[in-house]
Amino acid sequence: MRVSLQWLRELVACDLPTAELAERLSVAGFEVDAIEDLAARAAGVVVGYVEAREQHPNADKLSVCAVRIAAEQEPLQIVCGARNVRAGIHVAVATVGAHLPAVDLTIKPAELRGVASSGMICSLAELGLADSSDGIVILDEALETPPAIGTPVGPLFGLDDQVLELAITANRPDGLSMRGIAREVAALTGSALNLPAAAAAVSAEPLPVPAAVQERIETGGLFSLTALGGIRVAASPAWLQQRLERAGVRPINNVVDITNLVMLELGQPLHAFDADRLAALAGGRLDPALLDLRQAQVGEVFNALDGSSHALSADALVVSYAERAVALAGVMGGAETAVHDGTTTIWLEAAMFAPQAVRRSGRSVGLRSESSSRFEKGLPVEVTLEAADRAVALLQELCGAEVQGRWLHRKPLAERPALALRRDALHNLLGPVHASPEAAAAGGDGHDLEDAEIEQILTALGCGLTADEDGWLVQVPAARAMDLQREVDLIEEVARLVGYDRFSSHLPDPIAPGGLTPEQQVERRLRRCLVAVGLQETCSLSLGPARSERPGADPAHRLPLANPLLADYSHLRDSLVDELLQAAQRNLQAGRPGFWAFELGHVFNATAKGERQQLQLAGLICGARQAELWSSGGKPHAPDYFQARGLLQVALSPRAARWSRPSWWTATPVNRWAPAAAARRSACAIAMPGAPSPMRRWIRPTRRSAPRWRNSSARNCGPDRQLNAEGQARSSMATASTWLVWGKKSTGCTRSSR
User: DSSP string spanning 354-372?
Assistant: First the structure.
């Protein structure tokens, strides 16, 4: 957001130096990225009068001019190459020593083709006021009254201002309007606001559209059209063009410029349709009943105002007339219905669209505009008609417009409840405050904020206050409704505007001891035990595709995202097994068959009746690890059911929870990721059989011996499924795998195979 200081000081009586104001805004959350001094563009450029012009003796395209810049000085001799230079005109003269940032040129005495030159006659491009120029600027034609000789040129073209470049965060859409910034400055400095009075409201009648269209309008909140006739399209006044240029918006004509000015002033985007062009789309019929707000048809062509053409998808939300898309809702209008020099009647659209719909629309066609950047952050619907009335008043003043009517449909507004702000809660959270940052740095006892200071801050933000026994009931203004929704938000606003550097550095009183909950301790102990028996912990994304290749997976269990970035990451996972299998497959393809891993994380079930989120544990054993080949003569042995069961028994035994890792342990370090909850759970093994009848049991080694396996007879631990004719089951990966699943709601063992 580019903020003109001249415009800002018309709205709030703040006379702080620019650097100090920028510092205060940055500390308060509106970071100032840059300060542009427009006066630097024309420093050293003054008004001159061309007394004589002669042809250069050695060049056909150069002129030698005698230019007077002061009555008491002799005229300067300046060599000029512009075709429109002549005697008897006032021009902009860059004197020797002046620097022109727009062209990065410092003026020095020079000699051109044997003729001395002391200065330069400037064009608008050299002053940074135009992208290109055909010749020098003639002040007699560019200004209403010829200025006096020697007058600085900068103020004549508005180059006496400073512009702050502000970074606006997503939770502060009010910062994308001059009125919002003015309120912020008033609250920071205690200065008085001088906002323009609200324009007279235009009476409206119901928008005659079908019920389905009304329902789609209510998704955003409001849609209105104001019909205006007698329009005279022309160039905007200089003051209006200057305000737009300083804000980084290109002036077009008075109608479009007024809609952009209101957007910058109040933050509400508007759009003007040429009514005659709309009627042409319906065979000469101009009827608001033909209006629609709908999703675009796949392949529907839309020609935007910027000259680009797009084939729309179903993600695009369009405003259509007579079934023709005339605007990409909240993003950009269409070229077919744009205002032009011959426009005499317009329909002024003032609407509110859902932020998600505008974001999807802009992304679907790769467009982003000043309008969409505001709609995407969320705007208060209460400002929409106020902005329309303000634009109507300016159109009447500058374009001679006559109001012919207004149509409106809106969702009924729900009354926002007042927020309770307790005095004790504010003082306990913020603590004592000092009179200045220096006093806070020096230490000492501070004092609680006075009620008068708290009330002054909240009132300056536009809040309505009602005092009660415990504090205040605060009615939040519409412009801050997205940001101020809880008591702690109000406390944060008070602290932010008082200044964090004025508060004392102290700890909460009393100090409560911290520590892990029993659930967190159990969870961490389980991780350590699984690592101790040889498994590595993995951490995978919670997002995945809509379907899983896992046998028996139900796509209905996967919870879809409302606004996914990629199709492969469009749903929340319903199992931890998928990513473990993919990781094992990637290892096998890379020639690393040994993959022993587990993951403890959350899974989600879209069909669950209660809580959709559940903590789950899954493990996988695939192939023999390289570190164990010494024990098998260098020949890998596929893991079996009993080996996996033995590892699980050791990991979950009470003795394992107290076991410390031996000094000879050489397992690869694992990635640790601790979820925030673990509760009473049960465990089960999901096995792919392939085990002989003897079961291998892990024997805890001593420090003097290497780990070893010892065979023992199996009692009550037979395989869970019948073996094949060879007495052995084979996995699809050619190695035995075991999946371990553990969750909050486990009711028994679940078998699965791949």
Answer: -HHHHHHHHHHHT---HHH
Query: Band of the pLDDT at 740, cuts 50, 70, 90?
Result: very low
pLDDT tens-digit map of 130-168: 888 889 999 998 888 888 999 999 998 888 899 999 999
Ranges of beta strands (E only) in 380-537 are 402-410, 419-422, 464-467, 471-475, 536-537
Q: Is 711 exposed, middle or buried (0-12, 13-18, 19+ CB in 10 A)?
A: exposed
What lies within 8 Å, CB to CB, of 609 at 6+ separation is none
- DSSP letters spanning 193-226: B-PPPPPPPPP-EE----HHHHHHHHHHSEEEEE
Report which of 253, 255, 203, 262 is spatially closest to residue 231, judged by C-alpha positions. Answer: 255
Cβ atoms < 10 Å from Cβ of 746: 16
Give residue 226's region: left, alpha or beta (phi > 0; psi -120 to 50): beta
3-state secondary structure 153-186: CHHHHCCCCEEEEEECCCCCHHHHCHHHHHHHHH
pTM: 0.70
**What tokens appear for 637 in the block?**
């042995």
- DSSP result, 24-80: HHHHTT-EEEEEEEGGGGGTTEEEEEEEEEEE-TT-TT-EEEEEES-TTSPPEEEEE
* Sequence letter at residue 83: R
The distance from CA 473 to its chain's CA centroid, rounded to whole angstroms, is 31
Hunting for tokens 């379907």 — which residue is that? 547
Q: Which region holds residue 40: left if phi is over 0, alpha if psi is between -120 and 50, else beta?
A: alpha
Distance in angstroms (rounded) separating the CA atoms of residues 97 and 632: 87
Between 705 and 186, the higher pLDDT residue: 186
Write the Ramachandran bin of 634: left for phi over 0, alpha for psi from -120 to 50, otherwise beta. left
What does the block give as tokens for 253? Answer: 């004509």
Token pair, residue 442, equals 């020096």
Q: Is residue 237 helix, strand or coil?
A: coil
Considering Cα of 181, then 184, then 188, then 193, what sign does the dihedral take? positive
For the segment 686-694, the average pLDDT, to the nearest whole number, is 33
Q: What are phi and psi of 509, to 5 degrees?
A: -130, 120
Instruction: Output the pLDDT for position 744.
Output: 40
Decide: helix, strand or coil at residue 601: strand
Query: What would the pLDDT profile of 461-513 be if each residue is shown by its tens digit?
Result: 889 999 988 999 999 998 888 889 999 999 999 999 988 888 877 666 667 77
Task: List phi, psi (to 5°) of 242.
Answer: -65, -40
Which amino acid is located at 258 in the chain? I
Residue 96 CA, distance from chain mean position = 47
What does the DSSP 8-state code read for residue 146? P
Q: Are strands 402-410 and 464-467 parallel, antiparallel or unpaired?
A: unpaired
What mean pLDDT is predicted for residues 113-118?
91
How many residues are there in the chain? 754
Give the closest residue to 237 by CA, choosing from 158, 339, 335.
158
Question: How are beta strands 595-604 and 536-537 bridged, if at all?
Answer: parallel
**What phi and psi, each to the nearest 5 degrees, are found at residue 414?**
-85, 140
Reduced to 3 states (helix: H, G, I; strand: E, B; else coil), residue 311 is strand
Torsion of CA 508, 513, 516, 517, to 10 degrees: -100
Q: Residue 521 phi/psi, 5° resolution?
A: -65, -45
CA distance linking residue 709 with residue 696, whole number of Å = 6
